[in-house]
Specification:
Strand content: 5-15%
CATH architecture of the largest domain: 3-Layer(aba) Sandwich
CATH topology of the largest domain: Rossmann fold
Radius of gyration: 22 Å
C-alpha cells in the first residue's frame, strides 16, 4: 500500500483562502469537513497548537486524511481535501505571511476554551504566564498574541478579514474581539483602531463529537482505502454549525452542508453549552468516580443517566425557548451519547474542568439559586468534579495550582468556579450532601 497523497488520490490543491489555528481532530471533523463538502476552491492553511506532530503527519500526506463517520452499526469513509497546507504552530513567520495575503478571507480557531487565556470579560489574563509575557511585549507565544501580530501585517494591505472562533465559549466572537483589541493596544493604538474598524468577529456554536483515536482505531482507520493514512479522524455522523456575523471578503457556502446563519446566536450557544457540554462534564466526573471510562458506558449507568436528566431539567428552565426544540434536542443527545462505537473517553472530556464548569454548569446553578430553588441538578457535576479531584482523577487543568491548594475545602474549590456560589451556604451544603451520596453509591 502506498502512503496517502494528492497524487495517489488524484486530487488537486486549492489556493489558500482560509487560515486555521488549532490543527486537531475536531477542526478536521468540522470546519475542514464543511469546507470540503461545499467547495473545491477554498484551501485551508492549518497551524498546529502545542505540538507540531499533527502538522508533520498531515504535511507528509499533502494535508489529506480519511474521515470515518461512525454510527452504532457501521462506518462511512471519505477523503477530506480542504487542508492544503499543514504548518507547525511555531511558524509565526508563515502565519504572518498568510494572514497578510489579500487572498486570505478568514481565520478560524479551535484552540480550546483555556487556550484563549482570557478572563470572562474578554480581557487578557495577566496572571497566565504565557499571556503575561505577551502583554510585556515579548515575542508572542499565545495563539491570540500571534494572531494580533499577523493582523498587524494585514493592516499594511488595508484589506478587511473575518475572525471565526469555534470553541465552546459564550459570545465567542465578542470575547475574542475584546481580547485581540486589548493585545493590539499594547502593541500600537493604531493597530487596535484598525482591527476595530476592519476585522469582523463571527460568533459560532459548533457540535460534532470527535473522540481521541485509540491505537486500534488509528490502525484500522489508517488502512480503510488503497493507501495508508497516518492521520485519520473518527467522528459521529451528526454535525451542527451555527454562525452569526459578517464575512467582508467572502466565505465558503457552508450552508450547503447544513450550517446555519442567524442574527442572534445566544440561545443556540446556551443550548449547546448547557445541555451537551454540561452533560459531558457531568458524565466525565461522575462516571470516573463510578469506575467508568467512556461516555456510552456512563450514560448507560442508571446513576449517571439520572443525574444528566436532573441537570437538564434545571438547564431547560433557563433556556425556556420553544423554537429551540429542546425535547428533540435532548432525545438526540441521549442517542448520540449511547453510540457504543464512539469511544469518547471521560478523561479527555475532563481536561480543564474549572474553565469548562464555569461555562457549562455555573450559569444554571446561579439561575436556579436566584429563583429560590436548591439547584441540586447543577450541584451534582460540581460535586463530582470535587470527588474526582480528591481521587486524583480530574485531569490536567490550567488552574491546577489553585485546585491543589483548595482540594480539601469544598467552598474553596467552588470559589475557583464562582465566588458568589461559594458564599451561598445552602448551595455548598447541597454539594457536600451530593459528595456524601456519591461516596455511598460507588460501585
Amino acid at each position: 500500500m502506498t502512503a496517502l497523497s494528492r497524487a495517489a488520490a488524484g486530487l488537486q490543491a486549492a489556493p489558500v483562502r482560509a487560515v486555521h489555528l488549532g490543527l486537531g481532530a475536531f477542526h478536521r471533523a468540522h470546519q475542514a469537513w464543511y469546507t470540503a463538502a461545499v467547495s473545491d476552491d477554498w484551501g485551508i492553511a492549518a497551524f498546529s497548537g502545542r505540538s507540531p506532530e499533527a502538522a508533520e503527519a498531515l504535511a507528509r500526506q499533502d494535508g489529506l486524511y480519511t474521515l470515518v463517520e461512525r454510527d452504532s452499526e457501521s462506518d462511512r469513509t471519505g477523503i477530506v481535501a480542504s487542508i492544503v497546507e499543514a504548518v507547525d504552530g511555531a511558524r509565526t513567520d508563515r502565519l504572518i505571511e498568510l494572514v497578510a495575503a489579500e487572498s486570505t478571507a478568514l481565520v478560524t480557531l479551535t484552540i480550546t476554551e483555556a487556550g484563549y487565556r482570557l478572563l470572562p470579560d474578554g480581557l487578557p489574563d495577566a496572571a497566565d504566564p504565557v499571556m503575561a509575557a505577551d502583554l510585556a511585549g515579548e515575542p508572542p507565544r499565545s495563539a491570540l498574541g500571534r494572531l494580533a501580530l499577523a493582523l498587524d501585517a494585514r493592516r499594511a494591505t488595508g484589506a478587511p478579514i473575518a475572525v471565526v472562533p469555534c470553541d465552546n465559549l459564550p459570545a465567542n466572537g465578542a470575547l475574542v474581539r475584546a481580547g485581540l483589541l486589548a493585545l493590539a493596544e499594547r502593541r500600537d493604538a493604531a493597530l487596535a483602531e484598525w482591527i476595530g474598524e476592519n476585522v469582523s468577529f463571527v460568533s459560532t456554536s459548533v457540535d460534532r463529537i470527535t473522540p481521541r483515536l485509540s491505537p486500534a482505531d488509528r490502525e484500522a482507520a489508517g488502512r480503510l482505502g488503497p493507501w495508508t493514512d497516518a492521520a485519520p479522524v473518527v467522528t459521529e455522523p451528526f454535525s451542527d454549525w451555527i454562525l452569526s456575523g459578517a464575512f467582508p471578503v467572502g466565505r465558503p457556502a457552508w450552508e450547503a452542508a447544513g450550517a446555519r446563519f442567524v442574527d442572534d446566536i445566544t440561545p443556540f450557544e446556551h443550548r449547546k453549552l448547557w445541555l451537551l457540554n454540561g452533560a459531558h462534564s457531568l458524565l466525565a466526573y461522575l462516571g470516573s468516580v463510578r469506575g467508568l471510562d467512556v461516555v456510552s458506558d456512563a450514560i448507560a449507568d442508571p446513576v449517571c443517566r439520572g443525574a444528566v436528566l436532573d441537570f437538564w431539567a434545571e438547564a431547560r428552565r433557563t433556556l425556556a425557548d420553544e423554537s429551540l426544540g429542546l425535547d428533540e434536542y435532548c432525545a438526540a443527545l441521549l442517542r448520540r451519547f449511547e453510540n457504543p462505537r464512539i469511544r469518547h473517553e471521560l478523561a479527555q472530556i475532563g481536561l480543564d474542568g474549572a474553565t469548562k464548569l464555569r461555562l457549562r454548569v455555573v450559569p444554571t446553578a446561579r439561575a436556579e439559586r436566584s429563583a429560590g430553588r436548591d439547584a441540586r441538578g447543577a450541584a451534582t457535576p460540581i460535586a463530582a468534579w470535587v470527588a474526582a479531584i480528591r481521587r486524583g482523577g480530574y485531569g490536567a487543568d490550567s488552574e491546577s495550582p489553585a485546585i491543589a491548594r483548595a482540594a480539601g475545602d469544598v467552598r474553596a474549590l467552588v470559589r475557583i468556579l464562582d465566588p458568589d456560589l461559594a458564599d451561598d451556604l445552602a448551595f455548598t451544603t447541597t454539594i457536600t450532601a451530593e459528595l456524601s451520596a456519591m461516596h455511598k453509591e460507588q460501585p
